[in-house]
Amino acid sequence: MNSSFFGEMLQTIADRGRALMARDRRPPSEQLSANLVDLCEQLLSGRGEASGVALASEILTGYEELTSGSRVAFFESLASKFGPDHERLAAAIETWRADPSDATAAGVHKAAEPRRQELLRRLNLAPGGTVALVAMREHLLDALARRDDLAAVDRDFVHMFQSWFNRGFLVLRRIDWSTPANILERIIRYEAVHRINGWDDLRRRIDPPDRRCYAFFHPALVDDPVIFVEVALTREIPGAIDPILTMQGEPIENRQPTTAVFYSISNCQRGLTGVSFGNFLIKQVAEEIAREYPKLSRFVTLSPVPGFAAWLRRELAAEDSKALKPEDRAVLAEIDGDGWQSNPQALKEPLLRAAAWYFLYAKSRNGAPVDPVARFHLGNGARLERINWLGDTSENGLAQSHGLMVNYLYDLADIEKNHEAFAQQRTVVASNAVTRLVRAPAFDLTSLVG
């Protein structure tokens, strides 16, 4: 049964449900559409499947017509009225205390589940329900920037999406010049790391024999990628992005590539933020390419450093920075002034030393690296291999990282070991080339692993 047929079947059920609701007048449809919260209560009341699909469709259609302020009010209602049933939960806990068993523990688990989660499941029954809920979460993320009290609602969205978008439902497809134009247009639009400037630029990235692009698709998001990665097949580990983006491909047999370079990973659905796809994507693409080219010996990234410039500004402003030597601070103070024009080479070594400290020691409150790209790749089991001076001299690259880029190495033999070290001890696994750049602070030597 394909997704198109399944969608048409759901639409038929929804239409029949509306007819049933109109006939039995419980309650009139105009009253239902006037109050989405009442509609949600009706949906959870457990009416028949046909009317349930119709109600879900009614809710999602009504939600689309809300203004931004009304959407926030709707989320407030989800937070305050659709959490766990506290009385039921308290009774389930007392039952478990009186008779601890698997059955009573299951009762506690069921009672503890917020009503929102069942609401989301039922809303997902509507035709196009998954797409609508992903879009709804985008609006919720916008509201969360100002409303911490909606975090519980967001957790329930993420919990549901992690089930609906797990790896078993994702399909890997190669993107090439024969891919339908509507998908290629989305690749251009969704590229989030290195902007694609039109069709000719896209063709340079996906058509030559030494270029690859792969995407994950989900059956509920027809022809709309969830995440995609761009890959270059090279002889050496690259230190700059411009040659990769501008190089014209040549017959791959003339260069005998040894390295697969993952140089851009773009999440396409903002509403799925927090649901991990990238680790599965990189590993599966590495397996696909290794089967095609068994002589490939290295899998690396060429990654941006999006938070480095902002971090460095804070360290330069701090009087007691542990990251910067006094002599480096004096040089780096000119980095936002005329330093780049007057003597850029003078910035190189101080900047690389600061970057090494940033990767090895700059941590968030939970002990993870502050750099989001580092958290992603280190969490996947990669090793921080090299920091590249002037790897990205684009306007955005200079603004966010002072031109730095980094290589993360995926050594297939060490991925699991590195992942465990990061997950359990927050160990930043780094090459000697990186660790030698920085003077290890006396208070922390544990994160240096060569």
Per CATH, the superfamily of the largest domain is Malonyl-CoA decarboxylase, oligemerization domain
Number of strands: 7
CATH class descriptor of the largest domain: Mainly Alpha
Q: What is the helical fraction, as a range of percent?
A: 40-55%
Structural class: alpha+beta
Number of helices: 22
Cα radius of gyration in angstroms: 26 Å
Which of globular, elongated, flat, extended, rod-shaped describes the shape? globular
The CATH topology of the largest domain is: Butyryl-CoA Dehydrogenase, subunit A, domain 3
Neighbour order of strands in the largest sheet: 1-2-3-4-5
Q: How many domain units?
A: 3
**Strand percentage, roughly?**
5-15%
Low-pLDDT ranges = 20-34, 440-450
The ordered string of helix (H) and strand (E) elements is HHHHHHHHHHEHHEEHEHEHHHHHEHEHH
What's the CATH architecture name of the largest domain? Answer: Up-down Bundle
Quaternary structure state of the chains depicted: single chain
N-C termini distance:
52 Å
